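Retro notes, item 3 of 5
We never archived the inputs for the flavin-adenine dinucleotide complex last cycle. Fixing that now. Sequence and ligand:
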Amino acid sequence: MPNFYTEHPELRYHLNNPMMERICELKERNYRDKDEFDYAPQDYADAIDSYDKVLEITGEITGEVIAANAEGVDEEGPHCANGRVEYASGTKQNLDAMVKAGLNGMTMPRRFGGLNFPITPYTMCAEIVAAADAGFGNIWSLQDCIETLYEFGNEDQHSRFIPRICAGETMSMDLTEPDAGSDLQSVMLKATYDEANNCWRLNGVKRFITNGDADLHLVLARSEEGTRDGRGLSMFIYDKRDGGVNVRRIENKLGIHGSPTCELVYKNARAELCGDRKLGLIKYVMALMNGARLGIAAQSVGLSQASYNEALAYAKDRKQFGKAIIEFPAVADMLSTIKAKLDAGRALLYQTARYVDIYKALDDIARERKLTPEERQEQKKYAKLADSFTPLAKGMNSEYANQNAYDCIQVHGGSGFMLEYACQRIYRDARITSIYEGTTQLQVVAAIRYVTNGSYLSTLRDYEQVACSEEMKPLLERVKVMTDRFEACTNLVKETGNQELHDLMARRLYEMAAVCVMSHLIIQDATRAPELFVQSAKVYVNYAEAEVEKHNAFITKFNADDLAAYRK
Ligand SMILES: Cc1cc2nc3c(=O)[nH]c(=O)nc-3n(C[C@H](O)[C@H](O)[C@H](O)COP(=O)(O)OP(=O)(O)OC[C@H]3O[C@@H](n4cnc5c(N)ncnc54)[C@H](O)[C@@H]3O)c2cc1C
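Structure as it came back at the time:
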């Protein structure tokens, strides 16, 4: 029976990363739940064992149910009738299987019915679900909106809403409007306080909302009359049981057909404030989007894994000129490159997830007691690393998912263009990953200050001190030279003092930083588990070095007089 977890030992390798010990200790508060819940872990080994078991169950469901339904869901899609969404029949079976297995509200504390999972193993579940069906991955993964409600909602809201998500109800994040996409400061959906009923009322339209008929919605709305920027926005919880929001239509899309993308009409919908007024965009939506960006990075890695699986199987099977096409270096090159981007991108994803885990667990502890000065320092360090790595993980993995899906079709030749093969669905599904939750261009906007303020450079120099195997040493030396190039290019751009030139080079500097980071991570992985990662480390560093050289040539040879050629 196919199992999307056990078939890929790279996942178990990441689950056993040395940082997990600290993550478990913090998340489990030194394993205090063991006296209250018989299924809570006793110690670190027990915690890892329990994550492993849940991942195995998720792998089984994804292999046997979700993957089996994927094609039917892609064809049938959801329907809209009387303002409500009806999922495709396969989607309903998928949801049912996940709820029965208790895979909802996974990261929430046990007292609410959750599994108290750290973000890292939860993200692994999201990756394998997306590998089976990226569209269904959206519906299931939107459960992570509950993190934001847990972080910023009050006790009363926790007790009313979190148990429902743990029991299998679904969520959506309602941010985008026709005139507010990348620029969420322009959100105009109106929130007014209803004195008579002691609640807020929402009026307006939201567009492109994934799973827009969910049970619980987090909504960004304008609560401060007369304002036009982000400081007038607050975050609200809308409960479908209260009514007032209808689905006007479901979009007809290129990919992720199983995931209903809805236009929503709010008519006097009753809602309640989550957190404080005016912090909706500035604080809460930023937290919400950082979580969701990690989710899209996981979805992208899942899609890259699916591309690799399909391309490898086809290349072994298909014969031309009297031999399997995998034996042609041109085909093997494509396969090795897909695998290298998959392994390096996954390394970046889980490194980011681990950074998120540490700072979030410390944030949560800070709600119970004062952190020690050492803990405060640790919190600050990992919050910054998480913030700087999230746009790298999202942007790069989503671009790799697209490139890998493209190469997967190429390996299939003409058959890849035919609808009978899964690779065309993977290709269509991958396309959205570099657009939603902030386009790649917006990931660059989020990341660029970490280029200019030296954060990435300082992380890269720290990584140079991590011991590596003899076999990896020559690669590490090459990554040091790549980092020198990145540093020199950053300085060159900064020294011009020209903002337009700076903006033009931003994506190139971002990619230089990202490929250097991923090169280090894959070298570290190849040191710890050579049997899994040596090949990918070699292929990835060759690839990354060529990328750095390309950007280096562009930046160092660029003549500022040519800027006008880039204006339209
Ligand atoms: C299938 C799907 C599902 C979605 N799900 C949700 C959801 O669940 N909830 C939700 O709230 N939204 C959702 N969205 C909306 C999605 O997040 C937005 O589409 C996305 O953020 C881009 O906004 P836009 O479409 O308005 O494009 P625009 O903002 O108009 O961007 C157009 C182009 O301009 C570029 N651009 C814009 N601003 C800048 C800048 N400052 N610097 C450089 N380049 C820039 C962009 O990169 C892009 O190339 C979904 C969208 C789709 C298609």
